[in-house]
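Need the bound structure for GLP, inputs here:
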Amino acid sequence: MRLIICDNYQEMSKAAAKLVSSQLTVKPDSVLGLATGSTPVGMYNILAEMCKNGDVDFSEAKSFNLDEYYPISSDNSQSYHYFMQENLFSKINIKPENTHILNGMCKDTDAECKSFEKMISESGGIDLQILGIGQNGHIGFNEPDANLNPNTHLTDLTENTISANSRFFDNIDEVPKQAITMGIGTILKAKKIVLLASGAEKHKVVKQLLEGKITTDIPASMLKVHSDTVLICDRAAYSSERIGVDIGGTDIKFGILNDKNELIHKESIPTIASDEQTLISQIANKCKELMQAYSINGIGVGTPGLIEKGRVTASNLPFKGTFLAKELERLTGISVRVANDANCAALGESTAGAGRNSRNIVMITIGTGIGGGIIINNKLYEGKGSAGEIGHIIVEKGGIQCPCGQRGCWERYSSASALVDMAKKRAEEHKDSVLYSLYKENGKMNGKIFFEAVNRNCPDAKTVLDEYIERLADGINSIANIFEPDMIILSGGITNAGDSLLTPLSKKVNVTVHIAQLKNDAGIIGAAMLQ
Ligand code: GLP
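Answer from helper R.:
Posting the output first, comments after.
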């Protein structure tokens, strides 16, 4: 089986359409075996466009469709008769009498199947057979079964197929339980076979097909005995390696996550934030370089700032309403998803860090301000784009002015900067304290110096810590009351204080609190998990 990997669905569709048109150029009266499902729709659209422009001619072509539900009438919008009419036949110059689809309302299915086989051989056999693949490896409606039927036959559909195909019906009960389909032998008799696979939901079966043995459990694996079969798939179906990008003011981190969500590569480059286009090209170029070395199916990007309707606005980066995902998709040709960086870090911790065994977590990033990320059922809750701005819940009416415009935001009282300010003030007021002497000795105040004073049992440092913990706990308890998460994860430099912070905090909160484990990798892992 030959393999062609395309960057995306559109490229896959183009490659397949090209094979069909070449076939018709070489042999205008070719017999085509056609498939339904969502996968070949892009290819059909391209062929219709080509036919309209005179680039392909179906006037002498014949077609035989793989399968049809049973029972179903041809005017039912879910029938494959209807599908073919809508998606291809009405848009190309094929003669209606040259198209053949099994009759979903026939009385005698045996006779229908025999006559279909006869018509195929009388037309000289199928020259080019197009196939999609079901998530369970079915081709046509040849479902996994120890006894695969070689000829066109009536078959029961498996629950897997009924549920996968129910997306086209109003409800699952409307999906027919049976179908008539070409058999594996009918398909294998085609001179050339093109198997199409697109999307992450096909990744598992494509991997089984490429790496596994020939088995009736995966009917498509029978195609491996055919001498002229090509599998054309997009990256999402072929691979589950993803790039995670974490954009920071000083550097941009890149990581590759494999299908077990393990970080198999990481690197970083200095951020060139001179202007929007330079920064976007810088990210796209590195991604393209990684796409050469790895088989990447998508990119996730974590960025500071707000994301609204796909537009990113970040104060310390040249993003002012930038369509970041769209631009990167244009430059790399593969799927790109963008989320707020604190949200990505939360997703990273919930995937591979402190929250890996929990379904619901809230991560609180304590730094200059307070950021956050909410994970519900292992999925990032994004609201309209960047939910989780928990640093801006108001804890003090008319309180300290916040750069966001409000007064009394939680981050004004519980961020690392707030703690440092409180410590400085207390030190200045108590010049006989250990806190003050450490402050003067170091010529500055920071979290590390403050916690050193705490660990040296400085009563003034402890008073500040008590007050700080009180405020921090109030906010955490409010969040826990809203989300009732399995745990709250704290991250940021201040968490280096470890138990000096966690022990007193745990006494004041009504939820389990853990410290983040992934440090700098959380952002890239979470960004990659967006895909
Ligand atoms: C249906 C069809 C198959 C098709 C499969 C996958 O069951 N009988 O011919 O390949 O679904 O469909 P999709 O391309 O929508 O994933």
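Comments: The CA atoms of residues 424 and 445 lie 6 Å apart. DSSP finds 18 helices and 23 strands in the chain.
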